Amino acid sequence: MGAYILKRLISxxxxxxxxxxxxxxxxxxxxxDPATAILGSYATPENVxxxxxxxxxxxxxxxxxxxxxxxxxxGDFGRSYSLNxxxxxxxxxxxxxxxxxxxxxxxxxxxxxxxxxxxxATRQYGFADKAITFIVLIGISVPSFFLGMxxxxxxxxxxxxxxxxxxxxxxxxxxxPDLARHLIMPATALxxxxxxxxxxxSRSAMLEVLRQDxxxxxxxxxxxERRVIMGHALRAAMVSIxxxxxxxxxxxxxxxxxIEIVFQWPGVGRMLVDAILKRDIILVQGGVVFVAGAYxxxxxxxxxxxxxxxxxxxx
Amino acid sequence: xxALKVRDLSKTFPIGGGLLGRARAxxxxxxxxxxxxxTGETLGIVGESGCGKSTLARMLVGxxxxxxxxxxxxxxxxxxxDPAAFGKLIQYVFQDPVSSLNPRKTIKxxxxxxxxxxxxxxxxxxxxxxxxxxxxxxxxxxFLDRYPHEFSGGQAQRIGIARALAAxxxxxxxxxxxxxxxxxxxxxxxxxxxxxREEFNLTYLFISHDLAVVEAVSDRIMVLYFGSVVEIGPxxxxxxxxxxPYTKLLADSAPVVGRALSAPEQKDSELPDPLNPPTxxxxxxRCPRATERCLTAEPELKPLGEHQLAAxxxxxxx
Amino acid sequence: MTTFLKLLFRNRLAAVxxxxxxxxxxxxxxxxxxxxxxxxxxxxxxxxxxxxxxGHLLGTDHLGxxxxxxxxxxxxxxxxxxxxxxLVAATIGSGIGIVAGYFGGRTDNIIMRGVxxxxxxxxxxxxxxxxxxxxxxxxxALIAVAAVNIPFFARNIRGVTVGLAGREFIDAAxxxxxxxxxxxxxxxLPNVLSTIVIAMSTTVGWMILETAGLSxxxxxxxxxxxxxxxxxxxxxxxxxxxxxxSVVPGIMIFLIVMSINLLGDGVRDALDPRLRSGALTRPRxxxxxxxxxxxxxxxxKGLLNIQQLExxxxxxxxxxRAVNKVSLHVNPGEALGVIGESGSxxxxxxxxVMGLVASPPxxxxxGAVRYEGEDLLAASYDSLRRKRGNNVAYIFQDPLSTLHPxxxxxxxxxxxxxxxxxxxxxxxxxxxxxxxxxxRIPNPESRIRNFxxxxxxxxxxxVGIAMALANDPxxxxxxEPTTALDVTVQAQILSLLDDLRRERGLAIxxxxxxxxxVAQLCDRVAVMYAGRIVEEGPTATILEHPAHxxxxxxxxxxxxLGGGKRELAAIPxxxxxxxxxxxxxxxAPRCTKATEACQQGEIDLAGTATHTVRCIHPEEExx
Lengths: 315, 318, 623
Description:
Chain A is an all-alpha fold. Chain A contains twelve helices and two strands. A two-stranded antiparallel ribbon of chain A has the order 1-2. In chain A, helix 1 (2-28) runs antiparallel to helix 12, helix 10 (225-262) packs parallel to helix 11 (268-277) and helix 11 (268-277) packs antiparallel against helix 12. Chain C has helices spanning 2-10, 12-30, 67-103, 105-119, 123-134, 138-165, 168-175, 180-216, 228-235, 244-271, 273-276, 346-352, 381-387, 399-402, 409-418, 425-438, 444-447, 457-469, 487-504, 515-521, 539-544, 549-557, and strands at 288-289, 304-315, 318-330, 335-339, 362-371, 374-375, 392-395, 475-479, 507-512, 524-529, 532-538, 606-607, 612-613. The chains are: A mainly alpha, B alpha/beta, C alpha/beta. Chain C: Belongs to the ABC transporter superfamily. Belongs to the binding-protein-dependent transport system permease family.
């Protein structure tokens, strides 16, 4: 097991390098004088000159990449010109908020999605199946940002049950119950689509597995039906569900950008959108690399979970 | 005349190796082997799973590039792995008849491909050839507009044979051509093949795991074990008087009406690990006659009796 | 194509989706000729008019622009952008996928590593990076959305292509002289097209959502031009005071995406052949029993007695009579062979005994299965479950697919024991080791920790046999247990089964297509053809004096080792399809002895107490 984790960690190195190369190349597509384009409207002659020196923009592309990469490896993600502070500091300040939102949402969609899928599969064509299928269909069709807005209207404005936005109340907030109250709506709005996708997939994975020969074997040896479904079938279905959980984590992370805007959640997504609108390229670059890197590590966790479940994965 | 001559043909599949593909080791699916097949002859090839028979077949038709060795068809060497160059000389009939036909094409489109690509015939000439071939394999022309899924296994296998014939090859490799078919249909296809061999003066390589079928259709039989030829000889003698202990094990294992049930003598039932092949004779681990020498020295094929050859240090008496 | 449409619209939800989507598309198409206000003309005096106010059916937005007009123009734009993005992503992605899947090896490796890198990003990060570099704008949003969806298509299509590229018809095309380009275009593309269409129909909705999302963030369409996302984004600041400006575009996005999803699901179901046959239905825990006629009275025959069993498969309007009034019994310590070709109903007979036929589509429509006098077909699930494996156990054909891949073989054995006997784990484990010893697996103490994939085929089948023996059953039903094995392994398994039944007095029902196996193992044999038993009797008698012409000629087809090179006997024609059986003897169309009487009415099994045959003109008179 230790060897497998080590192997996966080592194999993440080229992926991380690839991510930096892709981000670097995309940023190199920026037309015109890079320094002015990166600094945008904030450009002053001193800044342009400083940036040229910092990034070695007078040097060839490949050298610039390695300078940038080397800086990042030493923890220097550059300096945000719109916020006038180091990029990494800003990211670290905001990453927690995103992690709480996306994490809670991810747990919600995994648990609810798998549960709904299993119920749906075992009651195939029954009332529960049809109801779940219908709800799922609506869930995956509604844009999360629109859903979030409608939830604000209903629960915050009309019913006055929950706070409209933000992470903590301005006065007297800051404790866990306060966070939870602020978290309910954004986390739910964010989880809906992924829940639907996971439920659909779990349903079809269960149906696929239930037709396998080894399920017939379990029945033939007299195993109780509940155990056949919750033991033999679900365990085998998890082999195809877990990778999708990894993919859906990416979707939850993506969706958090919209939700952070709608609910004014102080996370990385909102920071990125603001940075793009202000043409603060250094901040975008750093934020994208950081979050993508975090996602790579999350996927290693998914792979390790998969290898614990499936003994056929050895190398 | 020699239809097919194979010299030191072998295939090693690389294992491991990353993006830049420098493989550390390899699995030797086929160890260097040499044999000849005469025109008009049927050579049966038998062996159990993992013996390399399919790898050998794919190399012979150019679908797989050999690691070492030469293939000569009617004294013309074929060194490059280009199926189009092989196609006119040697064709292949596949095990799974339905899977060997493209589900999205009509039988006519399937039949026309070799005539168009290999011989560049025009539409009229193609239709003429297809009519001739269909008559030879007892297929009705109305099948031409249908799709593969409309046919039973036996019919689909006839279509597969017809397609091979369309290339007018000298040699046909039959890779388990009847193992997907029911017994009552199997005989139809086997008899058809025998008739076609006479009619077109073809040479067959007949690959099968079914000893009785191979014996019934072959002139000579080659027994493979773990990528090597262990025995080769006339069909009527190989299983009657096996020289190699493995051939004898095979013959004794086949269920035969009127023979009492007993597991034939062998020490271990497992094949050697291909990733970690043994030195010496690959069969030694299972062989009741194995000695110290078998574990160290690899046996060469040598003549035993009048027409048989076997690769064994301690062959059985005839 | 027509069958596709028929299948598609049989799905009512898909039809609803199609109608809604068609209506929206139509509206979008005729928008330029509708008498609408200019969507971009501002009139601040008229701002935030409510819906249904005069001159503005849906009201106005924060700049007093007509919402209906902006909605329709915005829909037009969103649809166009989403569809173009989907087409671009599908074309490029599928191209990459087909090339990688077909060529395989290093080409595949390098391409797919690149695709994996792109997939290592949460998709929006990549899109944001692209928009950041190219600058906000609808065209750039389109490029970004298309780009992030390329890996999805590439992966999907590559997966399908790899499966197809290994298929034999691709080899056949190469041998027919086709080049790579031609093979990709004429052999592969037609076969992956349905996958591409399915992938597109499930992603168009997504891509419309994603472009709307980028516009919502202010990174897509720029003012004053409106698409649905930017309308929603602009309305957000007035959400609480004037919710209608948000609700109108939001509902439109929802309707579009929902109708596309409904239609996409329909398209997928209609194109995916596995779903088409209804194969993805869940088999019930017990085969459905729906006996129309009278249940046969119990007679005191054998330990397990199958009486007049009828099992059918109901697939759409078709009824396949897989098992047609089959009666069989087996005595303690006896080995009964059931022999037949594929489709003869031998396996379905075996699975019907303990209600293991997949249902739907299987239904037991008649007969009885009596074990110790009790009719198993009438038994409750619980009582049947208690007998499964405990009294009647099964050994199946392919030991790799019939053992659970994720459980250790020891745990699977222990589970079999504990399903029927409440014994402590340690005792069950000791018993599992004993069982592995009984089936002659070397080192059973370490072998019980193996997973099935760590064993060879022969060893796995031994585990299968050990599992069948776990609760000392009286009857073992072995369904082609050696068909998937090599001949040398088969001999060992057969002799093991023979020893076990003699040691333990087991009754075995042995399903096979191989006369050699029957001859060596079985005391009695029943020959099946097209769902019926055509002959039954002691093995030696039937092998020497077959009475049914089918038995006789089938045996003549089987080559026997030691016969040398020869012409083989064949039976012309094909076995009938059991959904459409002729009256009378099903073998008559292939039989040389058939007369008119053979094709009329029911022919009964007749003969002596031990040897019976269903034939008017038997090869041997049975008296």
